[in-house]
Amino acid sequence: MNVSNHVTCTDFPCTDIVTNRYTIPSIEVDPAKVEILMISEAPPQNADDYFYASDDPFYLQTTLQAFDQAGAPVSSIEDILNLGIYVTTAVKCGKTGYSISSKTIKNCSKLLEKEIDLFPNVKAFLLMGDVAIKAMNYIAKRQTGERVIPSGSTYKIRKNKYFYKGLRVFPSYLQTGKSFLIEKSKQKMIAEDIKAALQRE
């Protein structure tokens, strides 16, 4: 299955994004083998830095480092997929500024919801950063009437157990880009969250 053939934005209603950086993973993946969805923030400004880009994309570099710190040494996006983990973004277009509006996250969460539905055997969600957490809450509100992750600082809430339709949900920090490399304390927490998701703790 090629995910980009099943998830498509047709009208691009959002105003605080870069539509020419619209990106859905265009890869062949066996949906039955995916057990964890790792949801990051948005595509990078440079398409060459995206997780599934060729060579050595920057977003993949920091993601591989996060897995290595979690005790799951991987050297490629294929290795991550072989662990049963599919990596995507909550928002499908590039950012115009530092933050992304709630309206845009809500709009794009409908695409993310369709993407999630492609994977019938998912056991857990890794929500990497506030944008992914907000997107998942919008999905949960539509599906169940309640948000899945409560308000509050991630470092305060991440140790608790959360569930969406009986599946574990792990709120964590963004594992992509320069901020990951700078913030050592967050690296440690991200590694703990990835390890917990892999072990279903």
Please summarize what this structure is.
This protein has 201 residues and is an alpha/beta fold. The protein has helices at 58-69, 77-82, 102-117, 130-144, 154-157, 178-182, 184-199, and strands at residues 17-18, 36-40, 85-89, 94-95, 124-128, 162-164, 167-172. The two termini are 30 Å apart.
Q: Would you give an account of this structure?
A:
With 201 residues, the chain is of the alpha/beta class. The protein has a single domain, classed as Uracil-DNA glycosylase-like domain (Uracil-DNA Glycosylase, subunit E, 3-Layer(aba) Sandwich), CATH 3.40.470. 37% of the residues lie in helices and 14% in strands. It has seven helices and seven strands; from the N terminus they run E-E-H-H-E-E-H-E-H-H-E-E-H-H. The strands form two sheets. A five-stranded mixed β-sheet has the order 3-2-5-7-6, with helices on both faces. The chain has a two-stranded antiparallel sheet with strand order 1-4. The longest helix has 16 residues, at 102-117.
